[in-house]
Predict the structure.
Amino acid sequence: MTVNATPFDTSLDQLLAHLAGHDAKSLVIDYADRRIAPGYHITEVKAGSFVALDCGGQPDTWQETVLQVEDIPAKDGQTFLSVGKFCSILAQVDRKVGLHSDARLTFEVSRPGEAMQVFDVAGTAIESDKAVLRLAARPAICKPRHRAAVAEAASCCAANTSAACCA
C-alpha cells in the first residue's frame, strides 16, 4: 500500500495512522536520493510552537513536531528500527513532553559531520517486510506569493472548472 502526502501537510497523527498495524516491520527512511543506514538514531523529538512574521508583514502561528534523525551505520548486526519501536518512542515523548497530534511534521536528518537538512513527508509505502517513509526536501517559500497563487487557482477554478489552472 502506498500513501502519498503533499509536502507540508502531514501531521504526526496522519503518519502514525499510515503505520498502524505494521509494528513488526522495519521502518526505512528514504531522503536526499539515499536510503538511511540501518543504524539510524532518533536523537531528539521536539514539540514546537512558532510565531512568525512573513515577508508580507503577516503574522502566523503553528505547531510543529520535529524528529531529528542521525543517519549512522549499523553496529554488530543492528537492523532498522521497527515501526513499533518508532511508535513507542513517540508515545514516550508524548507522555513526557506532550505532542500536538495535528502539528506539522518535520524531519531533520544528517550524517555525522554533515549539515542537517530539513524534510517533509512525501509519502509512505507499506511493503511485505518494511514501511518506507519517503522524505522530500523542504524549500523556502514566500508566503505572500504562495497565498496569492492559491487564491488565484481557487478563484479560477470556482469560475470555470475546465480552466488550465484547475488541471
Residues 2-140 form one domain.
